[in-house]
Amino acid sequence: MSERHAVAVIGCGVFGAVAALRLAERGYRVTVFERNREPLSGASFNNQNRLHLGFHYPRDPATAEQCIRGYQKFRDEFAECVTADFPNGYFIAEEGSAVTAREYLDFCDSVGLRYRLVEPSRYSPPVTGVTLGLRTQEAVIDCRHLRDVLGRRLAGSSATMRFGTEVRAVETRGDTYTVETHEGAAGSFDSVVNCSFADINRLSRQLGHEAPDRQYEYTAVYVVDWDHPPVGVTVMDGPFTTLLPFGRSGRFLLYHVEHSVLDRVTQQVAPARWREPAAGGLLDRAAVERGFRRVLRDATRFVPALRTARLRDVLHGPRVVLANRNDTDARPSMVGSPGPGYLTVFSGKLDHSVWAADEVVRQVDPRAMSRAQPAGQA
């Protein structure tokens, strides 16, 4: 690959970082633009850190199969960032679950997921209000360690890193793209890989590409101190709670499908007010504490021992999912090419980043990217 083929990667979350490394390894001249001061400072860090194996998607086997595909690839690439030495259980709620215990077991068997049945009352901690318990091999990602690892790899690569640089616009000029930042023009590029997550549609619209409605959510994941060994508890399948270890910190992440969503809209682009969430009242101390109490109240329905959990911090930020998918809860990862030389990476699963980066490389290759025939759109 000629060094003259220049690629702009917008966003240095895990998807942008891994894609940039793959492209740089293959001789592309890569420039990464990230509005924050270090990699993995946005949605890649402010999430549940779950290393998805597929158990979360009984109503959409296609998403589950993507998770199975991504799980081992990520573990092979970032083994030192994965924590798996804790019991991790999935449970079906007695009331309000979208799937029954039998349907859930049939789903697990149909996609080849391995599990061991557990008696919820004998799990540690005991789980109540559920009809089924499974011990799984799912793990979590230590995102602090992952950020350090990717930072070192990027620093040792040929990629040019532009941290603290917000991309305001992308324009086409003939066969090249011009990237405009808050500091002005930042150069011309043969290809652009848009990994900006919540900002994908805003930049795509500037280029005249379709920007379908997405469901944007501003979420809070609560970091708690709790006097218990590392353990995972996920209650399925509906508006329930997840408890997971916060990497190797000794703390836990507590999340609720509904109560952790501080704001939600379905539209083409993310709300501008989310850029300053504190100013909008989303994250004042009183609001954070109210949200935590709601989440904890629901969590103790299933894990009574969590009554002693204490709020330590909150991870917050926007996330994006497909709109109007509540019936199936489909959460696919997609690498698309809305136009020649322009790629978008749409995903909320950190562990899909390795196979997605390989797909980015395949599509950026000029031999696979016909400028006369776009490759499809995410």
Automatic annotation (TrEMBL):
Residues 7-320 form the FAD dependent oxidoreductase domain. It comes from the Bacteria. GO terms for cellular component: cytoplasm. Gene3D superfamilies: D-Amino Acid Oxidase, subunit A, domain 2 (3.30.9.10), FAD/NAD(P)-binding domain (3.50.50.60). InterPro entries: FAD-dep_OxRdtase, FAD/NAD-bd_sf. The keyword Oxidoreductase applies. Signal peptide: none annotated. One of its GO terms (molecular function) is oxidoreductase activity. Keywords: Oxidoreductase. Pfam families: DAO. Transmembrane segments: none annotated. This is FAD-binding oxidoreductase.
